User: What shape does this take?
Amino acid sequence: MKTLDRFEFMRLFVRIAETGSLSAAAQSVGVSQPTASRQLKQLEALLGVQLIRRSTHDLALTDAGNRFLEDARTMLADWETSIDTLRDERQELKGPIRVAVPVALGQTILATIASRFLVRHPAVNIDWRLIDEPGDLAVGGYDLWIRAGPVRRLGLIVRDLWRIDRTIVAAPGMQAVAHPRMLEPLPSVVLFTFVPDEVPLTGPRHRKAVLKVRPAFNTDNIYAAIVAVREGVGYGILPFWAVQDDLDGGRLIELCPAWHPPHLMLSVAYPTSRYRPVRISAFVNHLRMELPKAGAGIVASEADAEPSA
Assistant: This one.
């Protein structure tokens, strides 16, 4: 067995341990499930021990597998660090990045930023998955998760990098109001993934109010929500980045401009590990620098400092 094969087999074993799934591990390293199964058996034959105990429904590490896991991670980290150090000296980034991104931003602003990164670094390739629902990074085999809204931090490093400002918008036929209590009898278009039944608002001189929404159109898709608001179904609480063109073009108005819904955090999360490839750190830095340039209510967060676990 070639030395390079051993490293690839170890990488597969580590992914199996992290995901608890042979198929997910195979997908994350770019091989078929039968190939992954064969490579695992070859690694076990080389070591002379069983690493994974297989059953009908799941996989579990044996005692030997648990002992080998940390050694495998250390050897892979040392190998990848050496490779990345040499590439960094040549200012070369290479390899895959698997990213989970919000559906709306992932097909607009973030897609543009990621594409520009690839043009700058043609030896990198990105697997770009549009996912709004919270999930398990390890099971999905993702290197990064860009998430709008709260992130479950268990086992993840999370950086709150950007703030997404929102406003209350409506079709021009509706009359702007001075206070949110005047909105409560009105129907609303609710993007329910980000808008609760009661929305806290901040007004002039830091005054507070709570708006109880009356959904006429409930959706988890921001573009469907914008269409419904444009058609006059009701008002909506939406991010500036998504409605700025409509506001500028007069297709929407700010319905209660002196009162502001809470902003959303846009964060980057990644698994805790001893090693993180240079290409991933470079991509995060690219996002951090480029996203605020998009304007439209997306600004760098004051919390953009040290990562938190």
Observations:
- The radius of gyration is 24 Å.
- Residues 63-89 form the longest helix (27 residues).
